[in-house]
Structure formats: structure tokens, C-alpha cells
Design goal:
The complex is a heterodimer of chains A (186) and B (428).
Chain A (H helix, E strand, L loop, with lengths): L9 H19 L3 H5 L2 E9 L1 E2 L21 E2 L9 E3 L1 H11 L12 E14 L4 E12 L5 E15 L2 E11 L14
Parallel strand pairs in A: 1-8
Antiparallel strand pairs in A: 1-4, 2-3, 5-6, 6-7, 7-8
Chain B lengths: L14 E2 L2 H4 L1 H12 L4 E5 L8 E7 L2 E7 L5 E5 L14 E3 L2 E3 L6 E3 L4 E3 L22 E5 L2 E5 L7 H5 L2 H9 L6 E12 L4 H8 L5 H4 L6 H10 E5 L5 E6 L6 H4 L6 H5 L2 H12 L1 H10 L1 E8 L3 E4 L4 E7 L5 E10 L4 H12 L9 H15 L9 E2 L16 E3 L5 H20 L1
Antiparallel strand pairs in B: 1-19, 2-11, 3-4, 3-6, 4-5, 7-8, 8-9, 10-11, 12-18, 13-14, 13-20, 14-15, 15-16, 16-17, 17-18
Helix pairs in contact in B: 2-14
Classes of the chains: A alpha+beta (186), B alpha+beta (428).
């Protein structure tokens, strides 16, 4: 990803935001089957693990010392990402959601997603590469409520009627995980 | 304590008090009687290959640094400065020559020895640095690359402690020409549950699968467990469950790894690799163990191994009602990198903090703590009597053996647990 977003027309920016707001509303309304229709069958859905890393003394004084990428165990590396999934995994999660014995969500949890900082970073022949941030509020029965905070690094395929999700990499803002599950749709 | 240990676990351990899971005094006794006495899992040698490599570990709530010293030896020390007690190692893993306390920069070598006190040049009486190193974990031993530590100087050797559990662990660990390796850092997450329930779940409780996980696990898989499954207690507190596949089974029904998403959706070379491992399993682990298709293992008190989804896990207590659960993806050390990347999803697709199965487990562990922390129900201890007395010896499998529905694995765990707590009270 380049350091700065590329120029977009107001129409393009609006189209991206429309897609993300629509997606967030479907997920918060638990309409996961409709959400899955926005996902390409070739999707790569990933969540790197994040670790508390040792600062490299030789990099002190410069921005490389604090680079986010140093903290990530990604799907390309030889670490252990939290999620490295395709369409089948997502479809299985959607299917599970509507079974009565998906006990961790029965009674269902309540969620509210706020998506922001939507930036188009690159256009290729295949896709638009887009960054966005999210705060996801998650409340299961009982008073134990949770905030999920992070960034999404997406590749979106432009379509007549909007976009399809080709790639999503979810960068969580946690190394030590206090949330009850990371198996949600982010 | 406000009650006797005999009130917690009855003689044959078929009745288990709610207080075992929720009482603060019981928890303090567990610390002294179990975590201060047993061999506790610290890590795997593949995490600390080079001199200066270190990873963090825990022994109950006590932070420990597991490191390879400049001498090439493995060292385990409590991560707390001798001066003011701060953790001197702040990263999850890495490589270093020194651990330096942030407060006054006391500096320790990776073997724990104190190397420098910056302030000592300004005082006349120099402290004896040789007595001021990090507190060493007094016993550290490894077996097949698995490193354990103990605060109990007199504890039996690790191999004796594992006993016949080694027979079952070897069915997996020796299956691969170069053994196993741990990939990356452990996934670590907090669950509002008592530490013993994740342990019990992996020690032998494969029969919750058909019920708790019926949204995902097909009935046929559970039927195979009922028909081909064995539960073994090689030594009280340890446990192993597995399917013993018929001799004429096709290789793909037996081979480790073929049940997971990495094999199902991976490239053809993943299945070729697994076929090769299975083809040579007989010569590596013998004909009987080559047919073993493992499910879950447990090593007393809090190490688990999930064979079917290839993960080592440790349930670190954080009080009676909280656990920090660590789990590592484990892969064969000799596999090419791309195959390791595919096989690690056998773990992460279903287990770990994002796992589609494990989210149900952590939910019921949390709910069990809620039930264990209530009042007015102490006259209704939990029933642990399924299959009482139905276990026995087996001609080929060491230990006590039974069907997987027999809860003897949990009864033996709690008998050992009760003995350890009694001994801790007697020492007081």
C-alpha cells in the first residue's frame, strides 16, 4: 500500500462508502446470507496474529522501528495467523449462524459496526485496494460487552451494482485477546 | 479452609463439588499443591533454536522466560527483576543478549545471571551480583523437544512423570522424520472460566462433540468415535483419546491431517505429503500406532494436545474464574514451508480464538463457571459417574482403557488433584 490515498471522484468515494455501509447494516441486522452474496467465491479472508514484538535497537530513531508490519503474523509468513479462510469457511460460518445449536450466539449477540476512514489506495485492472477502519461493539447476553477495533485492507472488484469482496485482511488492534471470539464477520 | 478436601471430591471421584471450580481458597491450594509441585509445560525447542532466542511462558500466574543461552543450553527464569520486581522481558519472543529492566537498567544475560547494576559505581559496598540473578526455575527438562519446568526440586524425572503417556505422544511425535515444530507465537486469549474445564475438555471429553458442536460436526464423525474410539488413562491425570482404525482402512481414512481444511482445500502436494507420512508410519511408530488416529490428549496438570486439529494448548489460571488460554499450531518439522502454511489451517479453521468450533467450547466453559459460582446448591455436586468402574487393561494399549463415554479420565484427574491438595495441606 502506498503512503497516500489516490485521488477519487466524489462519486467513487460515495460508491465505496455506500458499499461499506450496506455491508455493515447487513451484518448488524444478522443478514449474513445477503452479506455472503457480496463476497467473491475466490475470496481470501485473513486475520494476521499480532504479537508484542521486541523493538530492534538498530532501527531506533526511525519509523521502521515502530512499523505495524513487524507485529503481524500474516498468511504469507511462517507464523500462525488467526484466520486464513476462503469462501467455504465463510459459507460454513454463515450456515452455522442459522442453526439452533450455534450456542455461543444463541441467544444471538448484538453488534454495531462503525466503518470509517475509507481510503482508496490503488487501482489495478482487477480490483480497487481500499483501507477502512472499524469499531465493532459486541454484546452477548449478560453484561459482558466488548469492543473490537481494527483496520480492514480490502481488494474490491467493481461491479455494475457496486462491489464484490475479493480480499479482506483484518488487522486487529490487540495482541492479547480479551474478546470471546474472533470468529465474527469484520 | 472452611471445608475439608474430602467434601470436594468423594472417594471414587464420581461426585465433584462446585467449589472445586470457583472457590478462592481451593485456588490458592491448587497453586501450592499442583502448580508449585508438578512439571509444567514451557515451550518447544523449535521456538528457541539460536543462542539468545527467548519466548515468554507462564507457570500458573508466574511469568517465565524460556531462553537458549549463549552456552546453547536451555534456561528458564522468573521474569521479575531482583531489584524492584518489574518484568525484565517485555516482548512475546525475540533474540537478545540482555534483558534490561526499564526502571534502573539492571541488566541480565539470557541465562538469567545479573550482568550489570548501573548504580553500583556510585556506592562503596558493591552488591554480590552472583547472588542477584533472576530466580531460576530449579528443574528444567525436555523430552522430544517439549520443554517442561518445575518449582519442585525433588520432582521425579520428566520421563517418569509422563510415564506411558510417552507411548501415545510418540504415536504423533515420532510419526515425522524430524518431529514437530511450533509455528509462530501462541494465540492467547482470556476466558472467564476455571482452568480445569479446558483441561478436562481435552483430557478425554470427546463426547460433547456430537451435542455442543452439532452445528458443525456431522453425526457420522461422532459415530466413528463411538465405534472405533478408545479412551486411555496411562497414568492418573494424563489421558489420551483416539480412534484405532481397522487394518484394511484406506490410507486417507487413517492419515494424520486428512480431516482438516488444509488437506481438504490445499494443493495436491499437501495430500501427497500426508500420504508419504502415513506410508512410513508403520516403520516409525509400529503397526499398531500407525493405525491410531488421535483425538485429544492431556498431560497433568494443564497441557493439552489436540491431534485431530494439531494444536498444543496450555490453560493458564488467572484466578478461580479466569483463564488465559494459549494455543500453538503444530506442524511436521520436515514439511516444506507451503505445506506447513496449509496444515496450520487444520488448527485455525476450527480452533483458536477465531475457531468455528472453539467458540462454542469457550462459551460453555464460561457458562460452567457461572453454574459453579452459585449458592444454595452445594448439596448437588456434579455427577462424574458415567461408566464408573468399566475401565480395565488392554492387551496392546498401556494404561487403563475404556470407551470414550466413560468419564474415568476425569475421575482419575480429580483423584490425583485431591491427593495433591491433601499433600499441600499436610505440608502447611
Amino acid at each position: 500500500m502506498t503512503a497516500e490515498a489516490i485521488a477519487t471522484t466524489p462519486g467513487e468515494q460515495r460508491a465505496l462508502e455506500r458499499f461499506y455501509y450496506h455491508e455493515a447494516r447487513l451484518l448488524d441486522n444478522r443478514q449474513y446470507q445477503q452479506w455472503l452474496a457480496l463476497v467473491a467465491e475466490s475470496v481470501r479472508y485473513r486475520m494476521p496474529a499480532r504479537v508484542n514484538v521486541q523493538v530492534d535497537n538498530r532501527q531506533r530513531g526511525g519509523e521502521a522501528m515502530l512499523a505495524i508490519e513487524r507485529e503481524l503474523e500474516t498468511a504469507e509468513g511462517q507464523g500462525n495467523p488467526l484466520r486464513d479462510e476462503g469462501f467455504v469457511h465463510l459459507a460454513l460460518r454463515v450456515e452455522r449462524a442459522y442453526k439452533i445449536n450455534s450456542w455461543s450466539e444463541n441467544p444471538p449477540a448484538r453488534t454495531r459496526r462503525i466503518i470509517g476512514n475509507v481510503e482508496l489506495m490503488r487501482r489495478t485492472a482487477r480490483s480497487w485496494e481500499v483501507l477502512s477502519n472499524f469499531h465493532l461493539y459486541y454484546a452477548r447476553p449478560g453484561s459482558d460487552n466488548h469492543l473490537y477495533s481494527g483496520q480492514r485492507r480490502d481488494a474490491l472488484q467493481p461491479q455494475e451494482d457496486g462491489f464484490r469482496l475479493l480480499e479482506r485482511e483484518v488487522i486487529l488492534d490487540y495482541a492479547d485477546i480479551g474478546q470471546p471470539t474472533l470468529g465474527l464477520f469484520f | 479452609m472452611d471445608f475439608a478436601i474430602d467434601e470436594l471430591v468423594n472417594e471414587d471421584a464420581s461426585l465433584i463439588s462446585r467449589r472445586c471450580w470457583s472457590d478462592a481458597q481451593v485456588y490458592e491450594l491448587e497453586k501450592r499443591g499442583i502448580f508449585g509441585r508438578a512439571w509444567l509445560f514451557l515451550g518447544h525447542v523449535s521456538q528457541i533454536r539460536e543462542p539468545g532466542d527467548f519466548v515468554q511462558a507462564y507457570m500458573c500466574e508466574t511469568p517465565v522466560i524460556l531462553a537458549r543461552g549463549e552456552d546453547g543450553a536451555i534456561h528458564a527464569n522468573i521474569n521479575s527483576c531482583t531489584h524492584r520486581g518489574l518484568p525484565v522481558c517485555r516482548a512475546d519472543h525475540g533474540n537478545t543478549r540482555r534483558f534490561i529492566c526499564p526502571y534502573h537498567n539492571w541488566a541480565y544475560a539470557v541465562d538469567g545471571s545479573l550482568q550489570a547494576i548501573p548504580q553500583e559505581s556510585e556506592v562503596r559496598n558493591k552488591p554480590d551480583k552472583s547472588t542477584l540473578g533472576l530466580k531460576r526455575v530449579p528443574r528444567v527438562e525436555s523430552w522430544r523437544g517439549l520443554v517442561f519446568g518445575s518449582f519442585n526440586v525433588q520432582i521425579e524425572p520428566l520421563e517418569d512423570y509422563l510415564g506411558d503417556m510417552r507411548f501415545y505422544l510418540d504415536a504423533f511425535l515420532q510419526r515425522f522424520p524430524d518431529g514437530i515444530e511450533f509455528l509462530g507465537a501462541p494465540h492467547r486469549w482470556v476466558i472467564n472460566a476455571n482452568w480445569k474445564l479446558p483441561v478436562e475438555n481435552q483430557l478425554g471429553d470427546v463426547n460433547h462433540g456430537a451435542f455442543l458442536h452439532s452445528a458443525i460436526i456431522p453425526r457420522e464423525a461422532q459415530t466413528a468415535i463411538e465405534q472405533l474410539g478408545y479412551s486411555v488413562v496411562p497414568r492418573p491425570g494424563h489421558g489420551a483419546t483416539f480412534r484405532l482404525m481397522p487394518e484394511d482402512s484406506p490410507w486417507e481414512d487413517v492419515a494424520w491431517g486428512m480431516e482438516g481444511m488444509g488437506a481438504i482445500f490445499g494443493a495436491a502436494d499437501v495430500r501427497e505429503y500426508l500420504a508419504e507420512v502415513q506410508a512410513r508410519a508403520g516403520e516409525r511408530v509400529g503397526e499398531l500406532r500407525a493405525r491410531m488416529k488421535g483425538l485429544t490428549y492431556g498431560v497433568y496438570p494443564n497441557l493439552s494436545f489436540l491431534w485431530s486439529n494439531t494444536s498444543f494448548k496450555v490453560s493458564h489460571p488467572r484466578g478461580p474464574g479466569k483463564v488465559e488460554y494459549w494455543s500453538w499450531a503444530v506442524v511436521p518439522a520436515d514439511a516444506p514451508d507451503a505445506i506447513k502454511r496449509a496444515l496450520r489451517t487444520n488448527y485455525s479453521s476450527f480452533f483458536g480464538p477465531a475457531g468455528i468450533l472453539e467458540q462454542e467450547d469457550s462459551e460453555v466453559w464460561t457458562q460452567q463457571f457461572i453454574g459453579s459460582d452459585i449458592d444454595f446448591a452445594d448439596d448437588r455436586p456434579y455427577f462424574y459417574g458415567l461408566g464408573l468402574g468399566e475401565e480395565g487393561p488392554h492387551p496392546q494399549l498401556p494404561g487403563l482403557v475404556s470407551v470414550t463415554a466413560n468419564e474415568f479420565y476425569a475421575r482419575h484427574f480429580f483423584r490425583r488433584w485431591r491427593d495433591d491438595l491433601r499433600a499441600a495441606e499436610a505440608r502447611r
